[in-house]
Amino acid sequence: MTMAVPSSAYASVRGSFRRQPVGWLCALLCLLGGALIVADFSAIIRVFPGAALLAFVLLLITVGIGVTVLQRVRPFRAAPRGWVWSGVVWGATAATGCAIVANTGLTGIWFKTGGIDFGSEWAAALTAPLNEELLKLCGVALIALGARQLVRGPLDGFFLGAFTGLGFQVVENWTYAMNSVLAGGGVAGGTDVLQSFATRVVVTGLGSHWAMTGVAGAGIGFLLAHDARPPRRRIVPAVLCLLTAMAMHWFFDAPLLVSAGGTIGKVAVNFVVAAGFYLVLRHRSRRRARAFLRSPRTPLSADLLTRGSRRRALRRVPPALRPAAEARASAYLNVVEEHAADSTGTGPGSDPRHGQAY
């Protein structure tokens, strides 16, 4: 009988990921990216340490809130912390550091080929969608390959991409804050940091990198889905997801709708696109899970479907038996998540283990 990954594997992803060659490769690339960021901004940090510290504190607050919200809206249960923070760290270090170098080179090409006026207007829109989306997606792909059991379909890919984009977003916000301090001569460093934070987090944060890379990450989920779809049915949606993310990024950076209202409109469009992906994928996932749990051949409890129903079910169990019941529910939830991700009905976890969840 084919079974889903047991809960012990779900809880120990970080350790197994570290033992794989792809884990070491990710670690080395993150160190490289972090070193590039430090090399590029070390002088600014030395001259304006107070502003750098304030920006860093705001970075931590932003990433903490972002991770908490994404974990809360993830269907069924929160993702393992190691998996989540692998994505955040890749986006914050490897993707950001390499993007600094890559963007500088490609921007120079646009200036040389199109002239100063063209480069000033269009360099960002033509550079960032290519370099940044591909660099972020490389991390999503590597982490997904290192933890295949946790990327069951496009919804898992969406969340891994969102965590990775969030890491990129908060560090990019920090670099913009440091550049704003430098542009202002450090006369009002704290004010410059707060203004940059308000613009890039409060105003544009909802439609920024987490949304773009979430959409692109859904494509990785299509590629690595735990089902029997043929390659052509995987590649096409994966490419479309990446192109959609690039189009979102291009629209966000393009010198169009440059007014305050236009900027808010761009943010709204990107947020709606990402939210649309999430809601459609979530609806399909929950529909398949609900159908599986309601099937006459399924012995598992429908209480597995939501966090609230699991908490209520556990409260009905005698206190001494709750740890064992919770462990069983976690193991059975792997089976439910496999079915929720499988659009063909032929993927792993097709045969549930007999017995009740509680």
Search tags:
358 residues, disordered N terminus
Task: Give the arrangement of secondary structure elements.
Blueprint: H1 7-11, H2 13-19, H3 21-47, H4 49-73, H5 81-146, H6 154-183, H7 189-203, H8 209-223, H9 231-253, H10 260-294, H11 307-315, H12 322-341
Helix pairs in contact: 2-5, 3-4, 3-5, 4-6, 4-7, 5-6, 5-8, 5-9, 6-7, 6-8, 8-9, 8-10, 9-10, 10-12
Describe the structure.
The protein is an all-alpha fold and about 350 residues long. The relative contact order is 0.12. It has helices at about 5-10, 15-20, 20-45, 50-75, 80-145, 155-185, 190-205, 210-225, 230-255, 260-295, 305-315, 320-340. Helix content is about 75%, strand content about 0%. The protein starts with 6 loop residues before the first helix and ends in a 17-residue tail after the last helix.
Helix content: over 70%
Report the oligomer.
single chain
Largest sheet: none
Q: Note the total helix count.
A: 12
How far apart, in Å, are the first and last alpha carbons?
Answer: 22 Å
How big is the Rg? 22 Å
Q: Could you name the ranges where pLDDT drops below 50 across 5 or more consecutive residues?
A: 1-15, 347-358
Structural class: mainly alpha
Quantity of strands, as a count = 0
What sequence of helices (H) and strands (E) makes up the elements?
A: HHHHHHHHHHHH
Strand content: under 5%
* Shape label: globular
If you average the pLDDT, what whole number results?
Answer: 86
Short description:
With 358 residues, the protein is mostly helical. It is built from twelve helices and no strands.
